Amino acid sequence: MRDAAPQTIYLSDYKPFGFEVTSVSLTFDLDPTATRVKSRIAFVPKPDAGGRMFLHGEKLKLISAQIDGAPVTPDLSDEGLTCAVPDAPFIWEAEVEIDPQNNLALEGLYMSNGMYCTQCEAEGFRKITYYPDRPDVMSIFTVTINGPHPVLLSNGNPVSAADGHAEWHDPWPKPAYLFALVAGELVAHPGSFTTKSGRTVDLNLYVRPGDEGKCAFGMQALKDSMKWDEDVYGREYDLDIFNIVAVDDFNMGAMENKGLNIFNSAAVLASPETSTDTNFERIEAIIAHEYFHNWTGNRITCRDWFQLCLKEGLTVFRDSQFTSDMRSAAVKRISDVIELRGRQFPEDQGPLSHPVRPESFQEINNFYTATVYDKGAEVIGMLRRLVGADAYANALDLYFDRHDGQACTIEDWLKVFEDATGRDLTQFKRWYSQAGTPRVTVKDAWYAGNYILSFTQNLKPSATTPDPQPQVIPIVTGLLSPSGKESVPSQVLELTEATQSFTFEGLPERPVPSVLRGFSAPVVLESELSEDHAAFLLAHDTDPFNRWEAGRGLARASLLAMIRGGTDPDPKYLDGIRAVLGDAGLDPAYRALMLSLPSQSDLATALHDAGETPDPAAIWAASEAMREAQAQHLADLLPGLYADHQITESFAPDASQSGRRSLANATLSLLGRLESPERAQAQFDAADNMTQQLAGLAVLLRQKAGKSALQSFETQWKEDRLVMDKWFGLQVMQAEPDAVASTAATLTGHADFNWKNPNRFRAVLGALATHHAGFHHASGAGYRLLADWLIKLDPLNPQTTARMCSAFQTWKRYDADRQALISTELDRILALPDLSRDTTEMLTRIRGS
Ligand code: BES
Ligand code: ZN
Predict the structure, then answer these.
(1) DSSP of 805-836, one letter per residue?
(2) Residues within 6 Å of ligand 1 by CB
(3) What is the rounded distance in angstroms from the CA atom of residue 761 to the CA atom of residue 465?
(4) Cα–Cα distance between 696 and 668 in angstroms, integer?
(5) What is the four-CA torsion angle of 536, 538, 540, 546, rounded to 10 degrees?
(6) Closest Cα partner for 805 from 824, 821, 789, 820?
(7) 316 CA to middle of ligand 2, Å?
(8) Under a CB-based contact definition with an 8 Å cutoff, are residues 709 and 692 in contact?
């Protein structure tokens, strides 16, 4: 382990910076291994500044430093410098040298395929120059770039450009984490947008030569996002130019740098031949997300990194609203809940559990989590549900008015809602401070014409939440008559007590309840209602989410019974989805979702919740048996469904076509269990788009008939790195549990396995970690292989390594043998002498005491 004890940062220790920064001017002389950065920064001491100033700085070679033109000799440390300063306004000037070429952590200024780019969130700017690298220090930046590249970009508006030189000025004060610089041989895909007040904004998507053909969709998504933010939030763009750059080596999906968003090329480049429908939808959402940050994150930013959900939770909520408006709201809600249960619930129920607003951290990069993002977005959704759409809109207007140009806290955010709506949000605030997934039990009763729903919040103490308090939980509820008609439409039941009942009067007969419609709160609902009740909702619920949820509940219950006792699949479930599949009035995308099963790790979670030890092999077997049962039970419908959802018009990545492809492909996959491989092979051969091609290949691989398709796919796409990521990943995903680790190991020996590229690394090792039965194979080979590669990656790229450690977060659920295998691997990694702070923190938390 690293020798210096890692430092813990606490929210309660927050202190403002002692100086205002009124302007920043940076000059870059680019060189792959010796880039020079000159800074000229105007500081104004606050009354209590105290004559000394600390500036962050890491891995910088200080060439010179001056205050008001006179050389100074600051005290240097690994974290930065300290310097005596005047108690009146002064100018700090420094020159540093950095080495972008050898920066493989992909944080700060680095190189990717010969182009320069930056990633500064959260604390990367300190690897570029000495600076108060904290989000509450906002300033106006002017940037000069000297370098022999045709494209030289930074934030804000262009001031001047000549051969080998460009100057940029950003008039909006911003924190350093939003700084960006790009230089390289790039080509622009241009566009333009006229804002609602009539200003023309130049848009560009910059890509590497050869990628020009993959820009049109992203450009359209950007225009749609700009329009939507004007229409729905009244937010107009505020510069003359908006640039997006695609970069191959990027730790995350994308970054919202002011006026210069930088994207992982996988999160922006799209074409029908190379991108799946899922890719298109994700690209549209990420472009929207980063664009929406211009107001929620950039114009109003975070006071400190504990407030991360202020920008991320809100912006995820906004991008999900956008996707719901652009596509199908029901499908988007179901997908979001699948994601929440698949990623956030395990996090919140395991050793990495933390509140939406954490109170301490060692490495902030480890807190860009499903909890901060997805639960953070759910919290905003609940707030909106509680106050209503109109009051929400008023509150947002007040938020933008009151806090524009500021670095804010969750307290500021909630105060805006209190002032705008008159509501007391004291109890609601617990959603930000109390970790863990609330559990709610519901019971019903029928007495003399009164229908009563009773809810109980289970407030069992846990390690992370020793003293849980009741939350405010909006439970959207509707009642159906026994004939399946909506008898009481959806209303919000506001649960605030540990136990609370709601009475419905004047009903002619005992109704059937539909509770937590639209998944109105991120809780686990434990219902004492029967499986007949679920089957009824699957047939009749008017709320599309709960109708789907009823099917999912039946599937889960049946799978759990199969895992426990080798029982047969529940005919109520199979009959129920059969009826839904056969209902041509329902959206094909929705019907496809009805066919999906709870993931194997979700089933492991459910078993663990029930106090049992999940057996990955048994979960795999039950899931396979259920798939077979679906195929058998729907056999007569499948060929017709497949044929009816083929698309004859030209390709469009819209919701309607992608829904049809998704149902056809779900059908193809089930047919693959009944037939020989001809159909899948024919689809693979004829495909003119990646969705169809990949779906065909997946079925062929599962049928063990994919050898030649795999080869022809490789030959066809060898030069396309994003498609090859799919080729690498799919082989692991489709492998049988026994073969997962060996398949992944073989692929890591492939000539094109460039492990320093995060996308390629994740394609193979990420697929290994998410193949439940393969990763948790009793041999321990999955654990070993992942650990080997994390050990290899950590010295280069701690951020990506640390994120991937979360594969181990559920380890204590499993049996003693697996726990022993995993703890051996955790200890092996933790014993490394120079393990990064990122990975050390993750594994120490996961390992526990
Ligand atoms: N601000 C983040 C990018 C980021 C994350 C920078 C972590 C530094 C550390 C950006 O807005 C973001 O949230 N990106 C997401 C995608 C989004 C659609 C949720 C990502 O990169 O995965
Ligand atoms: Zn974000």
Answers:
(1) GGGGTTGGGS-HHHHHHHHHHHHHHHT-TT--
(2) 121-122, 252-256, 285-286, 289-290, 293, 312, 316, 365, 368, 373
(3) 35
(4) 8
(5) 110
(6) 789
(7) 7
(8) no
- d(Cα 119, Cα 800) in Å, to the nearest integer? 13
> Across residues 604-626, what is the average pLDDT?
97
Nearest to 518 by CA among 558, 478, 481, 485: 478
Mean pLDDT of the chain: 97
Taking only the tens place, the pLDDT of each residue in 21-46 is 999 999 999 999 999 999 999 999 99
The H or E element spanning position 83 is strand 80-84
Closest Cα partner for 481 from 446, 513, 518?
Answer: 513
Q: Whose C-alpha lies nearest to ligand 1, atom 3?
A: 255
Q: Which atom of ligand 1 is nearest to the CA of 264?
A: 21
Count other C-beta atoms under 10 Å from residue 559's C-beta: 25
- The verdict on pTM exceeding 0.85 is yes
Q: Are 368 and 308 in contact (CB under 8 A)?
A: yes
Closest C-alpha to ligand 1, atom 8: 121
- Tell me if 769 sits within 8 A of 790, measured CB to CB: no
Q: What is the pLDDT of residue 3?
A: 43
Tell me how far the alpha carbon of residue 286 lies from the centroid of ligand 1, in angstroms.
9
Pairwise CA distance, residues 743 & 767, whole Å:
11
Cβ atoms 303, 408 nearer than 8 A? yes
Q: Amino acid identity of 568?
A: D
Pick the residue whose CA is nearest to atom 22 on ligand 1: 253
What tokens appear for 315 in the block?
A: 């912006």
Give me the sign of the Cα torsion angle 782, 788, 792, 793. positive
- Residue 355 in contact with residue 434, Cβ under 8 Å? yes
Contacts of 646 (CB under 8 A, 6+ apart): 660, 664
What tokens does 605 get? 């979670």
pLDDT of residue 4: 55
Mean pLDDT computed over 692-710: 98
Q: How far apart (Å, rounded) are the C-alpha atoms in residues 342 and 285?
A: 19
**CA distances in angstroms from 819 to 351, 456, 831, listed in the order given:** 14, 34, 18
Q: How far apart are CA 359 and CA 13, in angstroms?
A: 10
Question: What element of type H or E holds 798?
Answer: helix 798-804
190: enclosing H helix or E strand: strand 187-194
841 annotated active-site? no
Q: Which ligand number lies closest to the CA of residue 122?
A: 1
What spacing in Å lies between the alpha carbon of 311 and ligand 2's midpoint?
7
Half-sphere exposure of 580 (CA within 13 A, CB side): 32
Helix axes 690-702, 721-733, angle to 10 degrees: 30
Name the residue among 735, 737, 776, 354 with its Cα closest to residue 607.
776
Q: Cα–Cα distance between 332 and 340 in angstroms, integer?
A: 12
* Alpha carbons 247 and 304: distance in angstroms, whole number: 28
| Phi and psi angles of residue 104, each rounded to the nearest 5 degrees, phi first | -95, 0
Q: Does the pLDDT at position 385 exceed 60?
A: yes
